Amino acid sequence: MLLPLYHIRITSVLVAISITFNSGLIYIILNFTGREVGNYKYIMLSFALFNVFYSLVHISLLPAIHIHERSFLVFVTRFDWLPLNIGRILTGFYCSMFAQSLFFLAVHFAYRYLHIARPGLLDRIRCVWCLPLLILLYLLVALHYGLTCLYNFGPSESKDALFDAEILHDYGVSIRDVPYIAALARNNVSSHLVLQVADVVGLFNVAAVINVTFGVIIFCGIKTFTAINRIQMRQRMKHIHKQLLNALLLQILIILIYPHFILTS
């Protein structure tokens, strides 16, 4: 199973940039972060470590993302000697990492909002159970998204028929030998549109995760921005808060733009 050489090179360059940048960020966080940042230091550190892990997973699995009209198909191109079911688990794991990255960003924005606009509320929710609950929520989001992709977007005869010719042409392999997951809401069978119930339910599930996390990001981002401009604080502190908010906005743009660079077709 071969991917275009340009795709492998672009992916390798992007992964190298990500690992280098986040490794440098980890070094800066550990050695040069001031007191003004407080516990936010550990949130930044966890996200930087996650990004390094995400990049390593990406280059290790080298996923292919194939678009067909309003449907999409994802599969890992490495470890093709493994059984198909194991390959699909790896594909589902890779897809779940997108939701995990959104969750980390939502936590980032929520903490910035509480720290700047609602410090009293932040003090009240700081307790011994806060971190375990946050970890539990993270695991639930990751499992929910990954299992939805794995089971609701699993293979079917209709998907095999729809994608087979394109996958054979673009990757030189039969769709039946690919550990893919694919979302197909409707299928045209004998001139009749047939609703794919499992896929529709799966789309609602992943849309719920994406919409909730983006809702938290947008709400907290706007509230944080207005609070920075409204609340009286030292100019240096205001500058730090604005820089941190700008960094978060940049990370959002990277998450939105990055998939367009790794589309295989």
Give an account of the 3D structure:
With 265 residues, the protein is mostly helical. Helix content is 72%, strand content 9%. It has 8 helices and 5 strands. The strands form 2 sheets. A 3-stranded antiparallel beta sheet has the order 1-2-3. It has a two-stranded antiparallel sheet with strand order 4-5. A hairpin with a 2-residue loop joins β1 (63-68) and β2 (71-76). The longest helix is centred in the middle third of the chain and has 34 residues, at 84-117. The chain is elongated and about 65 Å long. The model has no long low-confidence stretch (mean pLDDT 82). Keywords: Membrane, Receptor, Transmembrane, Transmembrane helix.
Question: In short, what is this structure?
Answer:
With 265 residues, the protein is mostly helical.
Pick out its properties:
265 residues, mainly alpha, three-stranded antiparallel sheet, two-stranded antiparallel ribbon, 9% strand, G protein-coupled olfactory receptor activity
